[in-house]
Amino acid sequence: MRFYFPDSQDLVSPTYDFLNDEYLATRVRQRDDVYAHEIVAPRPYDGILLSKAIVDPADSRSAGKYAASQRARLYRLGVRRFFRLPDEMDSLGDCGAFNYIDEEYPPYSIEEVLDFYDGCEFDAGVSIDHVIFGYVPSGAEDDVDPAWKKRRIISLDLAEQFIGAVKARESSLEPVGAAQGWSPASYADSVVQLQKMGYRRIALGGMVPLKTSEILDCLVEIESRLDDQTTLHLLGINRVDSMEKFAEHGVASFDSTSVFRQAFMDERNNYHTANDTYAAIRVPQVDGNPALKRRVLAGLVSQAEVIALERKCLALLRDYDKCRAGIEETLSALEQYEKLVLGEGVKKKSYLSRYRRTLEETPWKHCPCALCQEHGIEIAIFRGTERNKRRGFHNLTVLEAKMRKLSFAGRRTGEAAQMRRTSG
Ligand SMILES: [Zn+2]
């Protein structure tokens, strides 16, 4: 089972100074910063997924994640050298269909997409698809929203043109057909048609909102129509607990950012362990927190007081980690800072009881990953991109370890990939 990590230019600076919250003056972002696969071992994923929409947004109003100089560098170096991918990792391109979900028709031409894949020298690329928003398990063609039917036809039509263009150009790209649907039968029919066009690898799109049982229903139906050589990729799906079952029905790869993003997007499940999740301890930077900054500017709280409390919290957390401070005094400082950040009279959720659990159990002390070993409690502090992304990278290592423990007896997951994973 291969796991692809979707890129959004998530790098960290290995020389970041956590005590003073500063970058080295000599840091050159592109040269010195590192990706997750360069800073933790074993490498937490098997490949990178990169969407055209991130590099070349179709809508000129939305800024892509890539600056013009980065984009030029990506095209100049190719995706492998740009990401400094080791030989055993590979690259998968797609269009990022969620970025144009509101459009009536996908905004990219076949030529543009293939120029992106070929220009960046991707190993494999997904055909242009159009996401269907909805799931009606028993919905026949004529019962469902006509827009769904249309989107499925658009996706199939573009897939046919795409594989034709790959062949016409004699591109070395492995074409991956995108299947859309709203039910087991419609997904299975899309897969059948893609196989007829010549696709041997098929990506299932639009399944992110589905329940695991619904995904399984689709996979069972698809499997009954699947050729022996065809493998499936689940776009945007990460359900570790069900991966063995998914593999039994032909799934050989998936991609997801969810464990990474939970590090800083989730309300409470920020730091993962093999069996549990913890809330990271929020010590926002005064400068980096717009609400707090507004309150300082409005004269509601004094800047000096806020900065003093922020420093006190960080110092106590570090001391606590070294057993030089007690949990009660640490929590009491966090409580004072939280009150300042949230503001009096505003009824917002306190995190204190969650912080107590995180501090009592100090999960980072039991984590073998290089980041927890090096940074200790800093990894559990919710603050700024360097700590938050490192926590995300840590979560990826936890996912990798979980995946490594699974056994994939699926008929199509490939013994070679399986051996590669177990040999680490
Ligand atoms: Zn760790």
| Sheet of most strands | 8 strands, parallel, barrel
The run of helices and strands is EHHEHHHEHEHEHEHEHEHEEEHHHHHEHH
Overall structural class, as computed from helix and strand content, comes to: alpha/beta
- Regarding quaternary structure, what we see is single chain
Average predicted local confidence, pLDDT: 93
Give the strand order, joined by hyphens, for the main sheet. 1-2-3-4-5-6-7-8
- Separation, N- and C-terminal Cα atoms: 13 Å
Using only C-alpha atoms, the radius of gyration works out to: 24 Å
Query: Percent range for helical residues?
Result: 40-55%
Structure in a nutshell:
45% of the residues lie in helices and 11% in strands.
